[in-house]
Amino acid sequence: MALAMAAPAMRMTSTASFLPRLFTPTLFSGARAQLSFRNVSLPLFPSVVLAIPVGLQLGLPSLPSILEGIWEGILKAVPKKKTSHMKKRHRQMAGKALKDVTSLCRCPACGEMKRMHYLCPHCANKLKNMLNKEDKNGTHPAEIFSVAPTPNSLISASGSSSLRVHNTTEATFPLQQTIENAHKLGCHHVATSRGGAGNVAASVGFGGEIKIWNFADNKWTLSFDIPPTKSSGGDVWAVALSADEGYLACTTSDGRIHVWDLQAKERIQSYETGARGTGSFAMSVDLSRDGRLTASGHESGAVYVFNNDAGRMVYSLSGLAKPVRAVAFSPGCKRLAAAGNAGIIALYDMEHGEHVGNLTSASSRPAWITSLDWNDTGDYLLSGSLDGKVKVWNVANGACVATHSETESALWCVRWLPKPERALGPGMGKGEMFCAAGASRSLSFYREATGI
After folding, report:
1. Which of 431, 437, 428, 434 minimizes the C-alpha distance to 446?
2. What does the sequence similarity comment in the record state about its family (predicted)?
């Protein structure tokens, strides 16, 4: 292609250089044409003489001067030779390459001097130190999907393979223990009993396995695990523990709800929400503190309540048409809160199974609610959503009394912490606290502004 384009350019250049030399006005100004004749007489007609031209001399320039212009045009038309990468490398090794750009400028982020077109070393060092500091402080390297409080600690689970335990009896919430290789593929749910002793915890990994942990000698150790099902049943998703830490409820992707006896290590109950395992994805589950009821929220927007004593479904609750990502019983087991993609919190009465109200915010497009939790008295309800906002709701009047939006990252779990018996530090009251975690990979702790 390059040769084909170079050939017309060469002809045009040579012609343009040759024609002005050939037809310039000064070429013929001083030149004269001389014609030579020879007289010839015929033998038959001696008196007739013919003049025959035998030579013509023109005052044209010489041939070398003409070819000089043509050759000059040809040289101008030949494209330049491209330098190969190897030759450039050889010149660079020999010290004959182009000089590097050594201009300096100020970093627009930190204002320090740096080389132009290069990453700022000051910003890079600050970022490296910040990452090392976060790792030393015990934050997770991946998104935190679930947290579970105990009277003295908080267990957090993330997309990494380890579980981390933070001490909640000190003002700085230091890292107390790291359970390495708890789940190889990461953990998406962890649960402890509400109002219990805090000696049992359950976690579910992305591989479908359930692991039961016991707390003894100030250390969490593995008690036993429930391997993923090998039958046609769905994978385990959400889990919940009873208040006495003796029973475990878990949901599956095909809409089933299983109840396990942790002492006997066997499944004692299974609930179906569809014909032969065709139910909607069970995204959330909760056990009432008295152990009498089990509630599940599904992708179809349905909320089901089961009676564990009778082993059957007692309520099929309506009011939410979108996936239900969180369900939570009140401490007195009189109310059930459910929320999800609809962006509203539905409240149900557990005595009659009636829809008694909604908790909504003044927004045209409310964010998905991913987590719910009641405080110990049942007066306030905590919610976390995908827009990074934590809201505290007064259930009595249905008003939002506090909103925290320190991050724009999604929140996957919010939990109230047990009320401490003493103040964590000087100037800190004994009010209630809660924790929020999500895509920011950090734990955020909030405490009540007033209280004794």
Report:
1. 434
2. Belongs to the bacterial ribosomal protein bL32 family.
Distance CA 309, CA 120 (A): 66
Please tell me the distance from the alpha carbon of residue 203 to that of residue 401, in angstroms, as a whole number: 32
What letter would DSSP give residue 101?
Answer: P
Least confident of 95-99, 156-160, 335-339, 364-368: 95-99
Q: How far apart are CA 250 and CA 148, in angstroms?
A: 16
* Rounded Cα–Cα distance for residues 148 and 175 (Å): 15
Report the alpha-carbon distance of residue 212 to residue 222 in Å, rounded. Answer: 6
User: Which uninterrupted H or E stretch holds 160?
Assistant: none
Place of tokens 């909103």: 403
- Per residue in 187-200, pLDDT tens? 999 999 988 888 99
Neighbours of 257 (CB within 10 A): 24
Which residues, in sequence order, are CB contacts of 252 under 8 Å at separation 6+? Answer: 233, 234, 235, 236, 237, 258, 282
CA distance 352 to 367: 30
Task: Give dist(CA 357, CA 345) in Å, integer.
Answer: 8
Contact at 8 Å (CB) between 177 and 166? no
* Position 438 pLDDT exceeds 50: yes
Q: Which tens digit of pLDDT belongs to each residue from 282-331?
A: 999 999 988 889 999 999 899 999 998 888 899 998 878 899 999 999 99
Question: Residue 178 half-sphere exposure, CB side, CA atoms within 13 Å?
Answer: 15
The torsion region of residue 306 among left (phi > 0), alpha (psi -120 to 50) and beta comes to beta
H helix count then E strand count, the chain: 4, 31
Taking only the tens place, the pLDDT of each residue in 238-264 is 999 988 888 999 999 888 899 998 988
Judged against a pLDDT cut of 90, whether residue 384 lies above it is answered with: yes
Whether the pTM exceeds 0.85: the reply is no
Question: And the tokens for 256?
Answer: 């089933």
- Other CB atoms within a 10 A radius of the CB of residue 425 amount to 9
The answer to whether residues 292 and 351 touch, using CB atoms and an 8 Å cutoff, is no
Residue 372: Cβ-neighbour burial (10 angstroms; 0-12, 13-18, 19+) = buried
CA atoms of 65 and 74, how far apart (whole Å): 15
Q: Which H or E run includes 416?
A: strand 411-417
